[in-house]
Amino acid sequence: MSFVARKQFSLGEWVNYVLLVLISLITLIPFFYVVSISLTDPEIYVPMRFSMIPERFSLAAYTYLLSTNSFLNSLYSTLFITIVGTILNVIVTFTMAYGLTKKSLPGRKIVLSFVVFTLVFNAGIVPHYLLVKELGLLNSYWALILISLTNAWSLIVVKSFMESLPSELEDAAKIDGCTDIGVFMKIIIPLSMPAVATFTLFFAVAHWNTYFNALIYITDSAKWTLQVLVKTLIIDSNSQGYATSSGDDKALPQETIRMASIVLAILPILLVYPFIQKYFAKGVMLGSIKG
Asked: Can you give the pTM of this predicted structure?
């Protein structure tokens, strides 16, 4: 009885819980609706009819999408940009942040000033485009990777994280004859795995969701990213490269194809996120101890 008494909620707590449930439903219902439409059998699909559970399940829309060259090309483009871009982001960010933790580094304060300066001022779209054009990177995947190898916020957080690590470990490793590279690879990186996991997720999500830069720098439809193609499918009813035929002389509703493309675009991140979630809060909080 005493345990039950301790679990009595006040009116304010009930209001908070009800509001949280309502907000959760408002957030989740559109997602379930998208999944429901994408799994609805094209033969019984009725436009503008709201249904949370398909009357008859079918993977026809997914099968069709995964059989088209346009979708497969965009999937390849997004995977390449995400994998290569994330790896380079992590390497550049953590090596540069480690270098900036060394007070003996020549020009350290100047570099830090430039990093902080970019937090306040941005060159803008036109200078970025002209730079990419002069480098000959237009219509190249590298235009989406090299221009965002790191950013000021990530550098500052990772630098603060590394400065919070015990300096005695590094001193002991150097006494044992370990070089700076050895200290970085054998001491700093293993201790920084929460931050590595956190920023790997940040960078991967950013690359996977690449849209605006791809829209500007990539004009070849064969190199479109997944997000650009999904936008084209959703906004343009007669999207290039997508006929409404499933291969068996039956028409596929455009709406089911659009919803299936949305699900396929967000599914990989939803599958990866739970495996890194435990590092997420820990990595960011540890990186914010020092400023």
From this structure: 0.81
